Amino acid sequence: MASQAAFDLVVIGAGPGGYVAALRAAELGLRTALVERCSQLGGTCLRVGCIPSKTLLSSTEAYVHARDRLSQNGIMANGFGIDLPQLQAHKEAVVEKLAKGISFLMRQNGVHVWEGTARVAGPHAVAVRGAEGEEILETRAILLATGSEPAELPFLPFDQKLVVDSTEALSFREVPKRLLIIGAGAIGLELGSVWSRLGSEVIVVERLPRIAAGFSPIVARVLQQELEKQRMQFLLGARVAGAEIGEASVTVRAEERGKERTLTAERALVAVGRRPHHADLALVEAGIHLTESGRVAVNRFWQTSLPSIYAIGDLIEGPMLAHRAQAEGRAVAELLAGRPARVRYRNIPNVIYTEPEVACVGFLEEDLRVAKRPYRRGIAYFQANGRALAADTPHGFVTVWMDELSGKLAGMEIVGSRASELIGAGVVALETGATVESLAQAVPAHPSLMESVHEAALAALGARRSDGRP
Q: Which of the residues 61, 128, 203, 354 has an alpha carbon 20 to 30 A from that of 368?
């Protein structure tokens, strides 16, 4: 074993939380090391998650728009088709470019990068096993940022041929004739959209009575209606009771309202959630406590039961969001540099990148009712928005909730094209404590989708008061 000079921080995992933490720590003058088991930096989000899925979503959305809508707008074009290998090559090129950018930033800021499998060897030591053996990195602090991995069903284990996880579903070399998706969360809906647009018959099975858990019932209903128009099928309130794997197909038994249904597909994507990835870290042996759900237990400063070791992102309790992990990674680096830092979790947006997109931040109406907080609600529909009509995306609306006592924004929810961008107005307003009146007084460009946020704010100011009770 070789001994390395002491670091201020060793980050394990080069996903969004890890590489952001390492970069910020180095910027603040901390001697920083980053350990990643894969040769390509970026973690699940960049390599097999957020970025490749959004690339496929963008490409297939453009394809469907050209195929189905251009002629309605007077633009006649023929010969549209799909070159799936080229589509996948474009996706990989985007991933490669971003990964190289992260590597460049690490070199530029003096972050020492190790490729290998890491484990916690003590409160101030990380063992890294690479191609040339094991090295010990001595450090003042350790940050665990190894993310998560797809969860499988015990009776439907992944074989990555017929029963696949999200990673494999991003890289199909042929469009499945029929694709069964178990789980109607962001992953299932987004990947279902991709393959449905490319011609697959997509059936989504969800045990809950509606899709898109975490959003309001009306937004979930509108999203489902729009996706059904895109030929996606849904079986809701259905529990998957068993499955049979054939030579070229998967058959799933689903119980719906006491009745059993049998569904057969060429492939099945299991998208029932993710679980923290920490099996290789030797956490229990090091004395680090886990929660009942198997996540790493931390305090409000992201410290584990060993104060010199921190954990963020999918490893700890909370929503598994890349931008949440980035905020936590940046905050830990700030704390280690002696600066104040915090993350306002209520102000972190949640987004599903289908078409239409859905996004929310802050309190939803049900939250306000449960808390018995008086509020006002304002809604603006995109069908009255000039830019939305001009772009042929009139579906959806913006909802704004105003705290009646303070006049400040309490929450915002959007279903519609580019909701992921528009929700940023709500994020900034919540983070700065802005009033709904300030959103109403701000003058947006005309025509623009942002006008619907403006109109929703105006509607909230003029709405009748609610007492916040069910």
A: 354
